[in-house]
Write a sequence for this structure.
């Protein structure tokens, strides 16, 4: 198939493009990353069209304006990229035009675009559902969160309506679209994944983790990703205050957003904070942990959850991400309700008190996990597209 992927950044697009190319598809990625950067993720430069000026402008405004003023430039930046992509796509026909939400409207509205199938992918939950969850979190925590603007909510909802279908990355995200009134037949679930081989722990790493757990040393609780209220850090902090540091050690790996800086400062005496790491450095970060904690309030598909599962870490998470797609209770972790730090405490105390059972879980959870490799995701994406393109076609005699 001839597939155009339109993405203002990277997200999972580069992994998908790489695997679709390996499957023999003709893929071109339209992005604001330079082609040399895409090549680092396995997408050859000849399969990349770059709007580098947009990427430079976005980063420059982010540094100069900061998180408070940057939203003022949001309409200009998204329209600018959307118009560029729509014009670039006109140069040849496509079987599938696949664009990330927020920059898809111009492509969808183009009468000059020759594409049999136009798909919007939403990397998070339905934007209106997301905004509602984050608004509730603002009231609960008293912090001002980075929420979708009214302009972006209206734009994305127009994109959902105009697309032939909307692809979502988790069963939770699919449920939010249906709850918000998008026809069930239009919402296509292709659960995301990661390069599992890059994150799989070695037998030695697993045994070292088991020895550490069985030694009675403080249980290492690891969180990787952005330190933000959206990721449930308010509940993580409440759990740390209750559990203390005598039986547990805590580590956060990733950037701290301004909204949560005060909370991070409060936890500095109880936890270790490590700045954002390169993807190649993450396997070693996962090797440190005994249990992985990510009590997300809202997420589409947190890649770090899949990485942790691939690394053989028992997981404590919520349904509001990919919890039900990746975790089976009692086998490779536990799924607890959002905004319930008491349940987080309950699970971690159980892990501490049942170290033999936890070690058995560590030895087996890597093989029992539902994490999908990027190659599987590409195969399912290809099948989704083919089902839509050839629906109703009469088989050849």
């Amino acid at each position: 198939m001839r597939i155009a992927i339109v993405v203002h950044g990277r997200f999972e697009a580069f992994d998908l493009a790489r695997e679709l190319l390996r499957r023999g598809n003709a893929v071109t990625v339209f992005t604001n990353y330079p082609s040399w950067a895409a090549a680092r993720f396995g997408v050859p430069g000849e399969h990349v069209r770059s709007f580098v000026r947009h990427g430079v402008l976005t980063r420059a405004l982010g540094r100069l304006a900061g998180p408070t003023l940057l939203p003022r430039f949001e309409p200009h930046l998204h329209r600018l990229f959307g118009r560029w992509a729509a014009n670039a796509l006109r140069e040849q026909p496509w079987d599938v035009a696949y664009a990330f939400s927020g920059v898809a409207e111009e492509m969808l509205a183009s009468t000059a675009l020759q594409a049999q199938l136009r798909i919007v992918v939403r990397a998070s939950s339905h934007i209106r559902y997301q905004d509602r969850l984050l608004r509730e979190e603002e009231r609960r925590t008293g912090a001002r969160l980075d929420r979708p603007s009214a302009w972006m909510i209206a734009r994305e909802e127009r994109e959902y309506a105009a697309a032939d279908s909307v692809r979502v990355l988790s069963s939770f995200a699919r449920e939010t679209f249906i709850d918000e009134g998008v026809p069930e037949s239009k919402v296509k679930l292709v659960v995301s994944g990661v390069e599992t081989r890059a994150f799989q722990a070695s037998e030695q790493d697993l045994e070292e983790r088991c020895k550490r757990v069985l030694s009675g040393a403080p249980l290492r609780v690891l969180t990787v990703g952005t330190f933000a209220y959206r990721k449930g850090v308010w509940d993580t902090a409440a759990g740390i205050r209750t559990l203390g540091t005598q039986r547990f050690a805590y580590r956060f790996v990733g950037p701290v957003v301004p909204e949560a800086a005060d909370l991070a400062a409060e936890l500095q005496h109880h936890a270790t904070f490590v700045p954002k790491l390169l993807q190649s450095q993450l396997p070693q970060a996962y090797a440190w942990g005994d249990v992985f904690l990510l009590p997300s309030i809202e997420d589409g598909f947190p890649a770090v959850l899949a990485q942790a599962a691939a690394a053989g870490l028992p997981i404590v998470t919520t349904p509001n991400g990919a919890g039900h797609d990746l975790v089976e209770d009692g086998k490779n972790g536990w799924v607890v309700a959002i905004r319930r730090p008491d349940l987080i405490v309950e699970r971690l105390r159980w892990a501490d008190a049942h170290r033999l059972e936890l070690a058995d879980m560590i030895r087996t959870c890597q093989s029992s996990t539902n994490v999908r490799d990027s190659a599987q995701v590409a195969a399912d994406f290809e099948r989704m597209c083919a089902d839509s393109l050839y629906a109703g076609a009469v088989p050849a005699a």
Q: What stands out?
A: The chain has a mean pLDDT of 94.
